């Protein structure tokens, strides 16, 4: 009994150490790129590492794998991130117009705007997990993120709840942000995504060859 407890505690501490290390790598890489150039490749690399943990186990060098992924995905991840940022800026601009001229717009226009925001969020929460899982072009990634976001709506909503929880957790307990916020969310999101994509992968593999990220 004691041996089993010690083994369980040792395994838990090992996972906490891995998550803390990955979270620090994510934060440092984001800051090194002054956020604008570092956040998106750092996020894709973090997701790629957690994907590898879930699919292949943990017997590989985390730091080396992480930085190899940052280098490999730097430009593509930033392009995806900048497109999303530009779209978010455009949506925010329209939101400000709605606030200032609310009486001038019908409820249909306002509802349509919030629906578009919702669709944008679907793409945002799905595109980076898909990016590290499949080999695909930018256009295909955005299309798949949109389609899968709608097709797997419960999963997408669960991811949104997790991300909201991370924000709340980071405000209430800032120390947790330094050690676990990003990596823990990355692990949970990637686990949900891989579980959801299993059926899709099986369906695709029956009709055509699928290319996965390394």
UniProtKB/TrEMBL annotation:
Leader sequence segment: none
Metal-binding in keyword set: no
InterPro entries to which the protein is assigned, alphabetical: DUF624, TonB_box_CS
Membrane found in the keyword field: yes
PROSITE patterns, alphabetized: TONB_DEPENDENT_REC_1 (PS00430)
Swiss-Prot/TrEMBL keywords: Membrane, Transmembrane, Transmembrane helix
Sequence intervals crossing the membrane: 25-49, 74-93, 105-132, 144-163, 169-190
Pfam families recorded: DUF624
Protein name, as recorded: YesL family protein
Lineage: Bacteria, Bacillati, Bacillota, Bacilli, Bacillales
């Amino acid at each position: 009994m004691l041996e089993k407890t010690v083994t369980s505690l040792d395994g838990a501490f090992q996972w906490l150490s891995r998550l803390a290390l990955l979270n620090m790598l994510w934060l440092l890489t984001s800051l090194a790129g002054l956020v604008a150039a570092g956040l998106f490749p750092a996020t894709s690399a973090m997701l790629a590492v957690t994907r590898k943990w879930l699919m292949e186990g943990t017997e590989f060098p985390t730091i080396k794998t992480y930085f190899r992924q940052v280098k490999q995905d730097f430009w593509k991840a930033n392009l995806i991130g900048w497109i999303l940022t530009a779209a978010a800026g455009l949506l925010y601009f329209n939101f400000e117009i709605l606030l200032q001229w609310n009486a001038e717009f019908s409820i249909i226009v306002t509802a349509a705007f919030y629906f578009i925001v919702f669709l944008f969020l679907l793409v945002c929460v799905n595109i980076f997990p898909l990016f590290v899982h499949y080999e695909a072009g930018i256009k295909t990634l955005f299309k798949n993120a949109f389609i899968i976001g709608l097709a797997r709506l419960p999963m997408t909503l669960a991811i949104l709840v997790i991300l909201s929880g991370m924000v709340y957790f980071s405000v209430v307990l800032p120390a947790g942000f330094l050690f676990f916020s990003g990596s823990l969310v990355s692990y949970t999101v990637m686990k949900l995504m891989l579980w959801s994509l299993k059926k899709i992968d099986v369906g695709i593999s029956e009709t055509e060859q699928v290319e996965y990220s390394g």
